[in-house]
Amino acid sequence: MLAMMIGFFKGLWQYRTEVKKQHKWIVRYTAQKNYALNPSWMMSTNLEIWLSEMEAIFGKRYCPCFEPSGNAKLDKQMMCPCEFIEDEIKEYGTCHCALFGSADLDKAGWKASSKRLMSEYQVPLNLKDGVLDTRGMPLDPRRNLPIPDAMHQLKSTLNSYSGNTLKMIVEREQEVINLEKIASYRGYSFAQEAKADHFEVTLQFDGNAAKGTNSSCGS
After folding, report:
1. pLDDT digits over 94-106, tens only?
2. 177 part of a folded domain
3. For the whole model, what pTM was predicted?
C-alpha cells in the first residue's frame, strides 16, 4: 500500500500539467453527457494520471484499464471516453474504469463499482523466481482483452518488486510491442524471444523498480 501511495504522488507530480488538462475535458464531458465524475478524488486523479501516461507512452488517450490491442478498430473504440461507456453505465452504474457514472448514482453504487474494479485487477500474480507469467487471465466480454493484461500485471509487480531483472511470459505479439514501448519510456533495457506458443520478455532496471507511476486500475 505504501509503495502504491508513493507511486500515486510521484505520478501526480510528474504529470501535474497533463492531469490539469485531463481534468478540464473530463469535467466538460460529464456536463455534456449528464454523467457524474467519481466522487473519490484519489480514484479520479489516479485515472487522470493513467490517461496522461497512456498518451505519453502510446501517443493516444487510450482507456487506462486496457493496453492497446493492435486492432485499429478496437483501439479507436477504446479511446477515452470509450465507445462502451453507455452500455457499461447501464450495467454497472459506471464505465469500466469507474471514472464516469450515471448522474443519480449514489455513494453505495460508486463503492460497488470500485469494488468490482478492484476484484478484477487485484488478483494473485503468477510470479515465481523473477518470472511473471501473464497468461490465463479472464477476458473482458466487450473488448475480448485480458483483465488484468500484461501491462497492468507489470505495474502491479513493480509496486513491490525488489529485483533488477524481470522476465515476463506473454501470449500475444502485441503485448510484446506494448511492453517495449513501456520499457523505452521508463528507461528499462528490453529483450524478447519468441517461443513456439508464447513470447518471453526480459526487463532490466537499476534496482529502483518503483520508478515511474506503478499504481494500476483498482489500486
Report:
1. 999 999 999 999 9
2. yes
3. 0.92
